[in-house]
Protein 1
Amino acid sequence: MFSKTPRVFFTLLIQDIHLMKHLAIVLTIAALTFSQNASACDCTSNGPFLTAAPAAQLVGLVKIKKYLTFSQINGHQMPVSMEVEIVDKYQGPEERKTITVWGDDGALCRPYLNQFKVGSYYVIAFFPNSMITIDTIQKPMKGMLTTSTSDYEISSCGTYWLSVDRSRKHAIGFLASTQHSVALKQLKKYFKKI
């Protein structure tokens, strides 16, 4: 009986060593995955457009004029800022006809701007650009992305933009739990009443 004990002990020890190796591999993979996602956006949805958008500083019917700056994101050249023409303002104090809008750089709670097609129309709720830092206000280095206090951003923590069907003059998207389309005139009236 005692002669089998060392064999059982070593068998269990070898199994424990294999288990520890597997556990170390699993923990390493988990740590790498967590560290890559640590800088990703994490926010709670503020709901559909009619619930979320009234909190924005500027809401309006806009046309995407052009992409301004690009950055390498996940191995692809992606637009990170764009020029937007305000066609019809629904809410907010903005008086300019053209504004600069910043999107996601891979870690912010903003949409990737490539989903907004140049020449297309949208109803978008904008917030003041939150990425103003001392580095972007001082003289930038060549190739550095610079922002301005007069720039805007779009949140992805809720529905803050709607596609526009210009032929029907309707905004389309997640407006409310049971509403996915509205006439542009009706939408503008909604924001004027707020």
Protein 2
Amino acid sequence: MAKKTFKGRPLLPGKLEGEVLASKQPFNTSGSYLENLFANRKDSAPCTDPNNKDFYGKELSGAIICTTVTVGSSLGGASLMGVGSLGVGPKAMLFSQHIDSVSFAGLLMDDVWNDRRVITIDLLIQSPSRKTEPSRSAEQRSNGRTSTNSKPRSESGKRVTIAQVNVPVAARRRAPAHATLHA
């Protein structure tokens, strides 16, 4: 199978490999972690948002979540910090659109205050196809460019590797990333 390449903007870059949990529906941060946030569940994080048919009932703990945007209340950022402190937060969050400021604030505060990084990339768009050799994994590097809000055409269960490329500090705010997902 061919690889799919996505370009995006790394907000909290890092290195990671795992399976993608993808949805074309918005991700409700508070509604998806109800059992964890209000019942203090620490052993797993099944998605409790019945409005997201792609994620409902699936394990979110340690997931690489690929979605359009996050929705919900102003509790979203605190929800992401809370599930991180319980040890059942996501490893990465990938967005096809702009990340909302509430969720990003929670992810950023968790990174700075609690030293828990959730790799975060937004503005993902699919790059023009290139012929590549079949692969069982994919790569994501911090050195592409993007400016649109196209939806990623990723499917849940696909392998992705996120590998940070050194980007000069002055360029990090503008330095986008690109991902190659095994399709």
Protein 3
Amino acid sequence: MNIRRFSVLFLANKGDRRVRCCLRRVNNSRLNRSARVNAVPCRPSIEDFRLAEVTISRRKALFQCSPEPVRIPHYELGFQGADFVFNIHAAKTPSQTIVSEQLLISQQVPHTILTDPATCTRYLRLTGAPGPLHISYKATVDIKQQVDLPDLIQETPIAQLPLSALTYIYPSRYCQSDRLAALAMSEFGHLPKGYRRVEAIRNWVNKHVSFRGNTTNSATAALDTLIDRVGVCRDFAHLMIAICRALNIPARFTTGIDYGADPLLGPTDFHAYVEVFLGSRWYLFDPSGTAIPMGFVRLATGRDAADVSFATIFGGVISPPPVITISAITEAGQPWELPRHRHEALSTDAALAAVATP
């Protein structure tokens, strides 16, 4: 069992232009990054991690994160105020446990935190008054990752897919899988079904799309990325998801923090990656290859970026980008392991029972 501990901090302020209002706004964001996995094979196992302060980020896997504040950008609200829906809390799942967390809101306004029972995504809702608004969230998170041998993982027949996975085989706003059937069959239809075929899709997207900031916008979808061959982590994820769904492989859009990303890409930021349902679990894939999947803290999951915006704002607001920090924690006598690139298949969800066929 490998354990890791991480620390994440998120700070948001209202009043600058540095904050992304939602996942769809990616012009100045590193949200569209994925990590390449270079790891040493090992036997199937479970790994533990701990995230110490998490700010607008979540992590799952056996590891530990050390706490560092995450500041949401400073927001400056107009004279009518504004309504906010944030997805900045670490998700609470059987594999991702919140050891401690703290939310600070500068304005004395009512707020609610709701959890989607289907995805474990947590939503912070509040109505801000005119003037400045500052939000800070930090958390310590324990993460358990299932580690399996890729060659032993098979695709799940449609007739045996759990109901919760069926949603992710259909086309969605940014993942037009119904338009990519010919490409998917031509490039991957001949490959043996299983983890290795999905890995080939991930590698193909990583090879044919260049990571470049300020090249896409909120309207960019998988077909656009396929044509332009450029984008950020969000775009890489959408294209990989669309190709998987075109082959009847359930795939979903997941958000977290770009742990381990090259500092040359900019400061720590939100990250978009892919989870694919194979066998009886959701496995992690990072098509942009810019971060370390073993260090991902899960925040939200959905069909595509439209479902999991980090911040959705209704009203006149000026906002800068969020300030995010995250770090892995090590401590003498603890089994926490620092995240690293690896070749094994990683999953941060519990196994789901297949549907029995008549």
